[in-house]
Write a structure and sequence with these properties.
The complex is a heterodimer of chains A (269) and B (325). By secondary structure, chain A is α/β, with parallel strands linked by helices. Chain A contains eight helices and ten strands. The longest helix of chain A is centred in the N-terminal third of the chain and has 19 residues, at 36-54. Chain B is α/β, with parallel strands linked by helices and 325 residues long. Chain B has a nine-stranded mixed sheet, with helices on both faces. The chains are: A alpha/beta (269), B alpha/beta (325).
């Protein structure tokens, strides 16, 4: 395992490469989620990366600029910057693992980033866990969380600003404070306008694991990709996951299905 | 690929801290300017998290400290996050890692003084570093300290509050029970789910991992006594709305049971207005960094840290500490 800084157009990004002792059979770049979900999942996914390393899979975990150990402030972070940083991470992984098949893995916001970037960097495979398919609903959820925090953790009788006021601030070009991080108007507008599903990664093998309760929007997107000749395997899994409740560890069925799929795809060549 | 990065006069360096079969991954912030004395701040993260922390609290702290002329070191515990291997760490592991990191920090930066800055469980670990003066630290900054054993939790338990009795008491105190009773019919499925989870938590807490939980509770239980015994400079920081403040006031040190106020040099106490457990807003973070730097700066000149916000601290009576220095 090696921790290092690498660069995206001069901006310092942090990465950790888990490299098996033997020649890896696959390299995966992990695209992490945003905000609190990144923090709450960090230990779990670093542990999974270590387990994958033992199974002969190299993993590059990295932090987008303005998050974690990477340089920049949270106000500089946006959907496009996350995509650009992911491309830089893939280039870094390709340099380090020349000749090894490469994949992108992402969960929640990271899965949406991975889906967008896949059509540009053409990995051999793409694994998505519960991507954000409705950015507007996701943003509403983030803003609602901030209000919930005021009511619960700060034990306020009422919220200081309403969700509508927060949206107005963003639309007026101001950053808002999201649990101590800045959520920028650029991020807000990019996410609302982003359509990562518009450019299907034709020729890339895709595994898409959704939560059972996500329902139609994700399934519709997956069907659309199928229609344009993307080899996609979409599965809805009835499992409680840590970003909704607080079970310890990783979602067992998500990891099992992913490991089995990776093995199967590799065996097929 | 680089393991070092510089900007605005300060350097951030990725380091591997030798620790037997469990080397620790760390980030070292070297100062932007040379202070009169080489003072380092070891940052000990909360619970079972990572060295950048929620809303990058530890990154920002490390950067602010290095801009203020301090060295700062953050690290991941053994077998977690960016450190090698994987392990369900115990409290003793965390303590051993902090000692290792402290020794490494002192030697690699040739420090003349070391302060330990901890958040939540990290503050509990920092308090334990004063046990038997084995590490010779020069001061403590303890934020949202876990000092009440009833607040103990483990990742194996899904971080749930494992003390069901306390959970029920707290729920009772929070009130509106009549309203809740009236709404049972409408919210039956919600209550069924909550009761189911409570049952699972209770069984887990009392059957499988009890030994580690008991050890953790015992370690947290000792914090009050350790604070009472510690003679070095100490700053306690709480968020006004954080439960650890209420628990410290009501359960750990009611009526100054620990005798903190009677010490020759009582701990300094700062309560950050509207503050929560991890100081998760711009204003709280700004205040936290200001308070920390103001308190630590005298150390660079060989002086004892000074209390920075005595009115609020005493007003809330956390330690019932006198204001006079």
């Amino acid at each position: 395992m090696e921790a290092f800084y690498f660069s995206n157009n001069g901006a310092r990004l942090f990465g950790v490469l888990h490299r098996p002792a033997e020649t890896p059979r696959l390299g995966l770049a992990f695209c992490c989620p945003y905000g609190q979900e990144m923090v709450s999942s960090y230990a779990r996914f670093s542990r999974w990366a270590k387990l994958l390393e033992q199974e002969g899979i190299a993993v590059l975990r990295f932090h987008y600029g303005g998050t974690g150990e990477s340089a920049g402030s949270s106000g500089d972070f946006s959907f496009e910057s996350a995509c650009a940083d992911t491309e830089a991470a893939v280039i870094c992984l390709r340099e380090r693992l020349a000749g090894t098949p490469l994949g992108l893995f992402g969960y929640r916001f990271g899965a949406t980033v991975a889906a967008r970037v896949a059509s540009r960097v053409r990995p051999d495979m793409l694994v998505l866990w519960a991507p954000v398919v409705d950015p507007a609903a996701y943003l509403r959820e983030l803003l609602r969380l901030r209000l919930t925090k005021e009511l619960v953790h700060q034990r306020q009788g009422h919220v200081k600003v309403t969700r509508r006021e927060l949206v107005e601030q963003l639309e007026a070009g101001q950053c808002i404070d999201l649990f101590g991080d800045d959520l920028s108007p650029v991020f807000y507008s990019q996410l609302l306008e982003a359509n990562p599903w518009a450019e299907p990664p034709v020729g890339v093998k895709v595994l898409w694991l959704a939560r059972a309760q996500e329902g139609r929007p994700g399934a519709d997107k997956a069907r659309h990709w199928q229609q344009v000749q993307v080899a996609i395997d979409y599965r809805a899994i009835p499992e409680i996951v840590f970003w909704e409740e607080d079970p310890p560890g990783l979602p067992e069925r998500f990891t099992q299905e992913t490991a089995a799929w990776l093995q199967k795809v590799q065996a097929q060549g | 690929m680089a393991a070092k990065s510089a900007g605005a006069g300060m350097t951030t360096e990725l380091v591997t801290i030798p620790n037997g079969r469990w080397p620790l991954h760390g980030v070292l912030h070297r100062p932007a300017h040379t202070a009169q004395r080489r003072v380092g701040v070891l940052i000990v993260q909360e619970s079972y998290n990572t060295k950048f922390g929620p809303h990058r609290i530890f990154v920002r702290l490390g950067e602010a400290l290095s801009q203020g002329g301090f060295h700062a070191l953050r690290y991941d515990n053994r077998g977690t996050c960016d450190s090698e291997g994987f392990l369900d760490i115990t409290f003793e592991d965390r303590l051993a890692d902090s000692e290792t990191a402290l020794a490494y920090f002192r030697e690699s930066c040739q420090l003349e003084a070391v302060i330990v800055w901890g958040l939540c469980m990290g503050a509990t670990v920092a308090a334990h570093l004063t046990r038997g003066r084995r590490t010779g630290i020069d001061g403590l900054v303890l934020c949202s300290i876990l000092a009440d054993p009833r607040d103990a939790s483990l990742p194996q338990l899904g971080y749930a509050n494992v003390d069901v009795g306390e959970f029920l008491k707290d729920s009772w105190r929070r009130g509106d029970w009549w309203g809740k009773v009236r709404r049972v019919g409408q919210r039956f499925s919600h209550y069924r789910r909550v009761l189911g989870r409570l049952a699972v938590v209770w069984v887990r807490a009392h059957v499988s991992p009890k030994s580690e939980l008991a050890r953790l509770r015992a370690a947290i239980q000792q914090v009050g006594r350790l604070l009472a015994r510690y003679e070095g400079p100490c700053l306690l920081i709480f968020g006004e709305k954080d439960e650890t403040l209420a628990h410290f006031q009501e359960r750990v040190n009611p009526g100054d049971r620990l005798g903190l106020a009677r010490k020759p040099r009582p701990p300094d106490v700062v309560i950050i207005g509207e503050g929560d457990h991890t100081f998760a807003s711009r204003e709280q973070m700004t205040e936290l960094l200001r308070v920390t730097l103001d308190w630590l700066t005298p150390l660079q000149h060989g002086r004892r840290p000074a209390m920075v916000n005595r009115d609020r601290g005493v007003g809330h009576g956390v330690s019932a500490a006198p204001v006079a220095e």
